[in-house]
Amino acid sequence: MYNLNNCVAKEVVEKGIAYRYRYLDQNTKEEGKISCVSPEEYLDKMIQLPLELPPVEPEKRLAYIKSLLVNDGYKEYADIIEAGIGDNPRALKRYINLLVFISRRADDLKIKIKANKEEPDHKALIEKYFIPALYVKWSLIVFKFPDVHRDIKNYPKKLQELQDAANENSEKVKSGDENKKAIQIDDRLKKILKKEPFFPDDDWLIARFIHLTEATVIKAAETSTSRGYSQTFQPGDMVLIPKGK
Predict the structure, then answer these.
(1) pLDDT (tens digit, 9 = 90+) per residue, 19-72?
(2) For 2, which DSSP code?
(3) In this predicted structure, what is the pLDDT of residue 73?
(4) Is the Cβ–Cβ distance between 93 and 68 less than 8 Å?
(5) Structure pTM?
(6) For residue 130, what is the enclosing H or E element?
(7) Pair 36, 79: CB distance under 8 Å
(8) Quick one: what percent of the chain has pLDDT higher than 90?
(9) Residue 33 neighbours by CB under 8 Å, 6+ apart
(10) From CA 107, how far away is CA 131, in angstroms rounded?
């Protein structure tokens, strides 16, 4: 028994098998070119009991998300996660991994800034806004909306503009057809940004959030492979781990 869905999508495996044995195709006068290896039959011989991984049922979704959140301080924000990720169990687990990564980096950065004897204003901002609710919201933006994340990295004010648009802040959202088009946002992102607490309109603090997901540069000595090269990795990247002792 083997749950293929816990590993990778069945269609992807079938395409891989077809490509792997592409040179074993035969030509027939009647049917033209046919494959000697059927991906479907190939998998049928290997997997005797295929199990589909169903989406999480709506009435059980919040409980499932809370079960993935080990830290109780994050469980009250399960509804924000549900709004952003949906019902795919695999996506939920991947998101939780990213949330843990960002939260730990944020907590470490918070300790370092608070230990600094200078810049009391920055300490106050970190104390007020480096909190689980905003870790959840920021990691959702990073995980589910990479284009938005990229825009915010290039133009930090974009986050405030999107937040104002989501909350229909009439004082800050500009009028006019052109500007309205510029601030149209995905419905899921709108639900996330409408949840309190809100990100502050402070460039220094937003830069700190951006810093949490900047590429982590590993020293060459630590990432050197048998081929002698080093790499820069980002959260979620697939990483080749060379054979060792």
Answers:
(1) 887 776 655 555 555 556 787 787 777 777 776 666 667 678 888 888 888 777
(2) B
(3) 81
(4) yes
(5) 0.65
(6) none
(7) no
(8) 29
(9) 25, 26, 27
(10) 9
